[in-house]
Specification:
409 residues; 5-stranded mixed β-sheet; alpha/beta
Length: 409
């Protein structure tokens, strides 16, 4: 399932009510005090990047109970802590035993596959971002032996970083304590590590038992192993961030956008030269300007427009008596508490990450239906939702934007 990531960089008070995360932002300057709610079951990660954030114990317990990870940052805005649930899977003990009994040859073979995929991903990023020659990296990937006894990972990394910043005054060296932009890579890797650790816990695996990393002071050895092939995705985002900053400094704008966009951002103009704008969720995950965006295209293929669903609820409820008005009001409140947003009067819509997730919310709607009135439910794919046309006095208008997958506070 696609989970939402919340990043809090300003003072806020976080609490829980009716299964919802209640965000209360304090008044700052001309900005009034604001409050919003987010379904906890839709949250995958919470990043606390401000020293003036207060959250309740009930909220922390609810987040962990829904398998969400909580990242805390220090005064330098660098992640320093990670909170994960203790029990993330029903057969967790059995899988722990499988990890402990894994043989050395098996762990070496798994590390071989990990290194091979990491080198291939590095080559893909180099081709896209720097148009560099990657034939040698392709050859190194196929030549990786069990356990990477030839250290081809290090050889590929040396070439990779030398080509990633070819115009730098000094040769860039990737070092955790190194100069800029190493700090950007550190931040991205820390968030990626938390994502992988959360996925491991939800799969019933112990993040401490790695297949290659085995530092006695490292509590996330397996997460460090699994995240290796995904590091190039972070590298790509960092390079794009640096390029956008350089463009801004020189008062120039890029000719086209190739960086990932936050989900649910409705394009104001057609993504292509003409025709109808793409309002689908997957269509807005990434800009369509680049035809060479191989890494982004792979992600888009996984998050299929026919896999993501939208659940629409239509209702016509009587409001003649006081009891009927209360039942209709309670029904709308229950829909809002379950993460629905008002699409039109008596029409509420909710984004669902999968068919299974849509079925869960459909069952909840069935339990909310009042005694009198008519209620209809419709489940459509993200592709079908993109074909919706809205008109206001014969003028076509874009749909209202639901909550983003990545939200900054």
């Amino acid at each position: 399932m696609i989970k939402r990531t919340l990043c809090f960089s300003n003072p806020a008070y976080l609490s829980m009510k009716n299964g919802q995360l209640v965000v209360r932002l304090e008044r700052q300057g001309d900005m009034p005090e604001r409050q919003t709610t987010i379904p906890i079951e839709d949250i995958g990660m919470v990043v606390l990047d401000c020293q003036q954030i207060t959250l309740t114990h009930g909220l922390m317990a609810a987040l962990l109970d829904n398998n969400a990870s909580v990242i805390t940052c220090n005064e330098r805005h660098m992640p320093v802590g990670l909170m994960l649930p203790l029990e993330g899977h029903t057969v967790q003990s059995e899988r722990f035993q499988d990890q402990l009994s894994a043989s050395l040859p098996l762990r070496k073979q798994l590390w071989q596959q990990t290194v091979q995929q990491k080198i291939l991903n590095q080559a893909a990023v180099l081709r896209e971002m720097r148009h560099a020659e990657t034939g040698n990296m392709q050859q190194w990937a196929t030549a990786v032996k069990s356990g990477d006894s030839g250290n081809l990972e290090g050889r590929a990394a040396a070439y990779y970083w030398s080509q990633m910043f070819p115009d730098a005054e000094e040769t860039f060296t990737r070092d955790r304590e190194g100069v800029y932009p190493n700090s950007l890579f550190n931040y991205g890797y820390a968030v990626l590590r938390a994502v992988i650790a959360r996925a491991l816990v939800s799969s019933g695996l112990l993040p401490t038992l790695g297949i290659h990393h085995h530092n006695r002071y490292n509590a996330y050895c397996l997460a460090d192993d699994i995240m290796e092939p995904y590091r190039p995705y972070v590298d790509k985002l960092v390079v794009q961030t640096i390029e956008r900053r350089n463009h801004h400094r020189h008062k120039t704008l890029p000719t086209h956008c190739t960086h990932p966009r936050s989900a649910y951002q409705w394009p104001a103009k057609p993504a292509h030269g003409g025709g109808k704008p793409d309002h689908s969720l997957v269509g807005t995950l990434f800009c369509r300007g680049s035809t060479q965006n191989n890494v982004s295209r792979d992600v888009m293929d996984r998050f299929s427009e026919y896999r993501i669903m939208w659940l629409l609820v239509f209702f016509d409820l009587p409001t003649d008596t006081k009891k009927e008005r209360k039942a209709a009001t309670d029904f709308r409140k229950h829909l809002l508490a379950d993460g629905f947003t008002m699409f039109q009067f008596s029409i509420y819509v909710r984004h669902c990450a999968s068919r299974e997730n849509a079925d869960v919310h459909l069952k909840r709607v069935r339990t909310m239906i009042p005694q009198y009135g008519q209620v209809g439910c419709l489940t459509i794919t993200d592709k079908q939702f993109a074909d919706i046309e809205l008109y206001n006095c014969q003028k076509e208008v874009p749909p209202n934007a639901p909550g983003q997958q990545l939200e900054l506070f």
